[in-house]
Design goal:
- The protein is 30% helix and 24% strand.
- By secondary structure, it is α/β, with parallel strands linked by helices.
- It has a domain at 33-135 and 207-286: Rossmann fold (3-Layer(aba) Sandwich), CATH 3.40.50.300.
- Strands 7-8-9-4-10-11 form a six-stranded mixed β-sheet, with helices on both faces. It has a five-stranded mixed β-sheet with strand order 1-3-2-5-6, with helices on one face.
- The chain is globular.
- 47% of the residues are buried.
- Adenosine-5'-triphosphate binds at residues 54, 59, 77, 79-85, 97, 99.
Length: 291
């Protein structure tokens, strides 16, 4: 974890120092402060009164939180409490689910990503995603990563250099340097997941969303992914869903606890959540009284 102090409830009025370009806009501050908020870091993502529905079922209820840039934010909570739904709402992956409906704001660099003028494809260029099960394409290792560039229109110039850089950042280059033309499907599960991470970071996003990226992996591969996540946060903002509380405690700077009913119950520095949570139900969850 990186060292970041500061209180749990703050309202940011400052803009992010990073580009944001087409996503930047004026920021308005509502009366009710969101949970979390920046301390040493600036806010890069902010949800305000975010509700998500699947048909008539409400999966998230009025989620307000601020996610700091270049840190690891973990989303934890029991099954079905809406962690993946929240993650997918950040880069509009819920758009792909017919019955899903989103109300409220989800701001990236202060701009609501649900505004009509936001192109979801451009958004996903800035906010990449890695899924639970490694899902490399049936292509070579090189092509798997180059695909990430091509699909994002970033295959101009030095594709080979960009592929190698992405593989290096994903801590995979050393292991595959001599077999870039071999199929990505021939790699181990852990290597496949790092290949997917390389594919996600090749177009140079600002945020990487990870939905239980290590849950299908053995302990050694999991440990490599955890080390990698911490390294990635030196350059990117990472938001990670995990069922594994020890993992959240090990690798995240901030932890958001969602509980049944799709509510965000507590969001604070990870040390605080695990050592001295404010909410009794969070304490019960952390100590394993319910799962
Ligand atoms: N595509 C979908 N269509 C309809 N309902 C859905 C869909 N995806 C999720 N839900 C419902 O939304 C609620 C939240 O689900 P979500 O997957 O976000 O929770 P989660 O906390 O990530 O769960 P888990 O830890 O089991 O992955 C659940 O009641 C789930 O059944």
């Amino acid at each position: 974890m990186t060292a970041n102090g500061g209180g749990p409830r703050t309202v940011s009025t400052s803009e992010s120092s990073r580009s944001g370009s087409e996503f930047e806009s004026d920021r308005s501050v509502s009366d009710e402060a969101p949970l979390g908020g920046p301390d040493a870091s600036e806010t890069i993502l902010e949800s305000r009164d975010l509700d998500v529905f699947y048909g008539d079922e409400q999966a998230l209820q009025s989620i307000s939180m601020e996610i700091p840039e270049q840190q690891v934010t973990a989303l934890i909570g029991p099954s079905g409490c809406g962690k993946s739904t929240f993650l997918r709402s950040i880069n509009r992956m819920n758009d792909l689910i017919d019955v899903a409906r989103v109300e409220g704001d989800l701001r990236f660099h202060g701009k609501n990503v649900y505004d009509e003028d936001v192109d979801p494809v451009a958004l996903r260029r800035k906010i990449g995603m890695v899924f639970q099960k490694p899902n490399p394409f049936p292509k070579s290792i090189f092509e798997n990563v180059a695909y990430g560039l091509r699909v994002q229109g970033k295959d101009d110039g030095d594709v080979e250099g960009k592929v190698r850089t992405a593989l290096e950042r994903a801590a995979l280059l050393d292991e595959v340097e001599d077999q870039l033309d071999s199929s990505g499907l021939d790699l181990s599960g852990g290597q496949q997941q790092r290949l997917c991470i390389a594919r996600a970071i090749a177009p140079d996003p600002e945020v990487i969303l990870m939905d239980e990226p290590a849950s299908a992996l053995d302990p050694v591969a999991t440990s490599k992914i955890e080390d990698l996540v911490e390294e990635l946060a030196e350059e990117y903002t990472v938001v990670i869903v995990t069922h594994n509380m020890q993992q959240a405690a090990r690798i995240s700077d901030k932890t958001a606890v969602f509980l049944t009913g799709g509510r965000l119950v507590e969001f604070d520095n990870t040390n605080k959540i695990f050592e001295n949570p404010e909410n009794e139900r969070v304490e019960d969850y952390i100590t394993g009284k319910f799962g």
